[in-house]
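I had to read the description of the data format several times before I understood it. For illustration, here is how one protein appears when written out as sequence plus structure tokens:
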Amino acid sequence: QVQLVESGGGLVQAGGSLRLSCAGNGRTLSSDAMGWLRQAPGKEREFVAGISRGGGYTHYADSVKGRFTISRDNAKNTVYLQMNSLKPEDTAVYYCAADPGTSRSYIARRIQEYDYWGQGTQVTVSS
């Protein structure tokens, strides 16, 4: 059973915006530090953004800082990634991931820390 379900990907022109959502499917996300990671064709998977359990702490990759915003609504059991000013180099499959059992302020910044993954959603930015 897939415990994380992403949605919101699609095709957008450079400079446009998308909002990705990640919903817990039989999994309560409020106990997890959450993150968004991406993998472009021919490249390794990379960290994009992370958020602590309580939502009070966030961290971003330098490549998306100032353009992307991660947030969470624990009441809705959902994590979001708002992506603005999209660039062609943002084209990738975006994955939502969970790092369980962390302290309330912890952010998982390494891919290896994430134990649960969604199936991914494709984001394509045209020039």
Q: What stands out?
A: The chain has a mean pLDDT of 95.
